[in-house]
Design brief:
With about 325 residues, this protein is of the alpha/beta class. Helix content is about 35%, strand content about 25%. The radius of gyration is 24 Å and the shape is globular. Bound molecules: adenosine-5'-triphosphate.
């Protein structure tokens, strides 16, 4: 993380890729006998689109609330943009956009008026410049999230998805260096999910680090560069997605029909690790060699390629690994 200037103000300059943007050390939150977040060490770096994964109740929202200073940890440390939270909240939070647990908005006011209000109240958030400038910023933000046409309607007439977009627009108006989103696509239809994904990727390209919590593996797989996996309050995995999904060394083969798969099993013998219908997993060979052998023997092949694990498999392995460790002996 870039060092804070000696006068104690927040460095407004861009973070360098790889700098730590969110760091927690031993972050723990207990509610009575329940440990909702258990000694979590997170390390989110500048430039990441970080997917914070975990089943319902695993502690994602509690962690996010601790990050933003909305809840005080029982123990452990939180740093945002290199500054200790919640002590530096007043300096750090204007540089952080957040969308947590359904955006709050005044129902009787229009989306645009809500944005103008939050702009006027946001300190050091670009809220300066008078009414006309605020209105222009609000209109720009509404356009970016696809609410340009309905920005003048009262928020009480918005669907959940529209409210979610409005919350994102409010977060964007801070021109944040870090955007923290808790389940951002809740209530959105597939088209809305695609639009939000595009928007987050565009923001990331222009220098915003994105931290989003989600239980939707497909969403995280399409969007994120690094993931953290929470399992019953513990961080059981933190890694780059391309590392987790690197080729396993085995070859995945799909024949056009069951007869072809039968013949492939006979031809490849012990190299076949498993078969599911017309799909085989083959070890000890590369895709080109496997293709040559099968096609040479007249087996029709639909697809051949290096095996990569899906995020679902990765998550399953790590949660199962932990469950196995806990089996009493
Ligand atoms: N204020 C609270 N008081 C008591 N228990 C709480 C409180 N907030 C959360 N918990 C408990 O802490 C655990 C973690 O909850 P949390 O909401 O952080 O999980 P989550 O991963 O965000 O789940 P979800 O996806 O369902 O929101 C749960 O068992 C929850 O019941």
């Amino acid at each position: 993380m870039s060092a804070a200037p000696p006068d104690g103000t927040l460095d407004e300059g861009a973070t360098t890729p790889g700098d730590s943007v969110v760091r927690t050390t031993g972050l723990t939150k207990r509610y009575g006998a329940l440990t909702a977040v258990d000694a979590v060490d997170l390390d989110v770096r500048a430039g990441d689109v970080y997917g914070f994964l975990g089943a319902n109740g695993s502690g994602k929202t509690t962690t996010v609330r601790c990050l933003l200073g909305l809840v005080l940890p029982t123990s452990g440390r939180v740093e945002l943009l290199g500054r200790a939270m919640p002590r530096a909240a007043a300096e750090v939070l204007p540089r952080v956009g957040a969308l947590v647990e359904g955006p709050a908005a005044y129902g009787h006011l229009s989306g645009r008026a809500n944005l103008e209000l939050s702009d006027a109240s946001g300190r050091r958030s670009g809220g300066e410049g008078g009414r006309r400038a605020r209105r222009r910023r609000a209109d720009e933000a509404l356009d970016r999230v696809g609410l340009g046409a309905v920005g003048r309607r009262p928020v009480r007439a918005y669907s959940l998805g529209m409210r979610q977009r409005l919350g994102l627009a409010a977060a964007l108006m801070r021109r944040p260096r870090l955007l923290v989103l808790d389940e951002p696509t809740n209530g959105l239809d597939p088209q809305g999910i695609r639009e939000i994904r595009e928007l987050l990727l565009e923001l990331n390209r222009t220098g915003t680090t994105v931290f989003l919590s989600s239980h939707l593996l497909a969403e995280v797989e399409q969007l994120c560069t690094r993931i953290g996996l929470l399992d019953r309050g513990r961080l059981v995995l933190e890694e780059r997605l391309d590392v987790l999904q690197a080729p396993t060394g085995r070859v995945a083969v799909e024949t056009t029909d069951a007869e072809g798969a039968d013949r492939a099993v006979t031809l490849l013998g012990d190299a076949v690790v498993s078969r599911t219908g017309v799909r085989l997993l083959v070890s000890g060979a590369d895709p080109a060699t496997v293709t040559e052998r099968l096609v040479g023997a007249g087996v029709r092949v639909q697809a051949v390629g290096p095996e990569r694990r899906s995020l679902e498999q990765v998550v399953e392995e790590h949660t199962r690994a932990r469950a196995a460790q806990e089996v009493p002996t």
